[in-house]
From TrEMBL:
Naturally occurring in which organism (per UniProt): Zingiber officinale (Ginger)
Keyword Signal found: yes
Protein name (database record): Purple acid phosphatase
Domain called Purple acid phosphatase N-terminal: residue spans: 47-134
Lineage top rank: taxon: Eukaryota
Keyword line: Signal
């Protein structure tokens, strides 16, 4: 018995060495069914769908939903279980969609919090205790990265693998629930991710599946904005669809592929101002995430990111962005440093990681031959892990869901552009001047 237990444990350890079958002989698994999850809790007044996100320096936003409209938007917290030495009051919202009425959606910002510390908290003065760990103030810091999650058997497998790894923060470049207008699927998604999303901050940006427009009403992103409020106000943005945050020594920009991005848009003006504020001494790492990839050698979603790239690529290039992560294409692809369609040592490393496990299945057709800027590509479900080791070095790995096992299938070191000759101060200033 013990031996069997040990074997099972080994299988689930977050692997650190490249292993498993090579991409070529790997038999691609079929999509899995959407899980059928209870989306009403047993006791209807307990908090549900708890998730957390960073909300400015040393602060965290706690989000949850209650059926009880009188339930208070209060979080009590402290560093020992059951001993709540602090308390914060927040706000709440709700929305209607045809015949659906959402629960009361609570958003409470807590802090200031110590970094790299475990806090115990209770939502709405009722229900179970949750715990979270704040990210470290310095390197090393580890991010779990995965897009296009959905809520299928493969999503479950991906989330299980992530939960077995040590990481500080979850980055999600769009397409969360795949609710696609069925509002109760937003609730079941919230229930599915709660075990992870209540313990580590989830920083997300919107994908096309978050866009739910009803004819005649311009209420796109209604459910997404109500449920997944991100620190946009904290980062000087006027829209929940794009924002930035800083953690350890990284400045991370979450862009919106599904809102205006042309040179006269608010997003463009905000991006330019946000990039101008970046201090590479303080945050040597500069990352950008969004949904629709700009470089993509898969036949799926070809060209969908092109207009945004035409508008914004030179801004990111001038700022010396290190890593650019997208989702949307249901496969994994890692690119060279690229700019303007070519390999360029001063461009960002591009990565597409839209392989979280949604019901639409994998995007299996890649361009042949492989473009010079594409390094590694594979249509499999999985997740990525980015460990920023210090101000100059980061280690990226991609973990394939090999059936139900997590197999480390691609890995490489990235060095930050912050100390390279790429960020030519003069050129940067010219670009940034109004
Ligand atoms: C709803 O919440 C209020 C405030 O906490 C509480 O007094 C009331 O009993 C709750 N109602 C139900 C049905 O649980
Ligand atoms: C965070 O805390 C852990 C455990 O307490 C410690 O091992 C680690 O070095 C800390 N990390 C940082 C960056 O302070
Ligand atoms: C950063 O980490 C890399 C990889 O571990 C190491 O080679 C390098 O010396 C480190 N740099 C500093 C300044 O510590
Ligand atoms: Fe998508």
């Amino acid at each position: 018995m013990e031996f069997i237990g040990a074997t099972i444990l080994l299988v689930f350890l977050c692997p650190s060495a490249i292993g498993g079958r090579s991409g070529e002989d790997y038999v691609r698994p079929l999509p899995r069914e959407t899980l059928s999850l209870p989306w009403r809790p047993v006791r209807s007044s307990d908090p549900q769908q708890v998730h957390i996100s960073l909300a400015g320096i040393n602060h965290m936003r706690i989000t949850w939903i209650t059926d009880n409209k009188s339930s208070p938007s209060i979080v009590k917290y402290g560093t020992s279980p059951g001993e709540y030495t602090s308390s914060s009051q927040g706000e709440s919202t709700s929305y209607k969609y045809l015949f659906y009425n959402s629960g009361k959606i609570h958003h409470v910002v807590i802090g200031p919090l110590e970094s790299n510390t475990t806090y115990f908290y209770q939502c709405g003065e009722q229900g179970p205790e949750f715990q979270l760990k704040t990210p470290p103030a310095e390197f090393p810091i580890t991010f779990a990265v995965v897009g296009d999650l959905g809520q299928t058997g493969w999503t479950k497998s991906t989330l299980d693998h992530i939960s077995q790894c040590k990481y500080d923060l979850h980055l999600l470049p769009g397409d969360l629930s795949y609710a696609d207008y069925q509002q109760h699927l937003w609730d079941s998604f919230g229930t599915l991710v709660q075990p992870l999303a209540s313990t580590r901050p989830w920083m997300v940006t919107e994908g096309n599946h978050e866009k739910e427009s009803i004819l005649f009403f311009e209420s796109r992103f209604q459910a997404y904005n109500a449920r997944w409020k991100m620190p946009y106000q904290e980062s000087g943005s006027t829209s929940n669809l794009y924002y930035s945050f800083e953690v350890a020594g990284a400045h991370i920009i979450m862009l919106g592929s599904y809102t205006d991005y042309d040179e006269n848009s608010e997003q463009y003006a905000w991006l330019k101002a946000d990039l101008a504020k970046v201090d590479r001494e303080k945050t040597p790492w500069l990352l950008v995430l969004l949904h629709a990839p700009w470089y993509n050698s898969n036949w799926a979603h070809q060209g969908e990111g092109e207009a945004m790239m035409a508008s914004m690529e030179s801004l990111l290039y001038a700022a010396g962005v290190d890593i650019f992560i997208a989702g949307h294409v249901h496969a994994y692809e890692r690119m060279e440093r690229v700019f303007n369609g070519r390999v360029d040592p001063c461009g960002p490393v591009h990565i597409t990681i839209g392989d979280g496990g949604n019901r639409e299945g994998l995007a299996q057709r890649f361009f042949k031959p492989k473009p010079e800027w594409s390094v590694f590509r594979e249509a499999s479900f999985g997740h990525g892990k980015l460990k920023i080791v210090n101000s100059t070095h980061a280690f990226w790995s991609w973990h394939r869901n090999d059936n139900d096992e997590s197999v480390n299938s691609d890995e490489f070191w990235i060095t930050s552009l912050s100390t390279s000759g790429c960020i030519v101060r003069k050129g940067w200033k010219i670009l940034m001047s109004p």
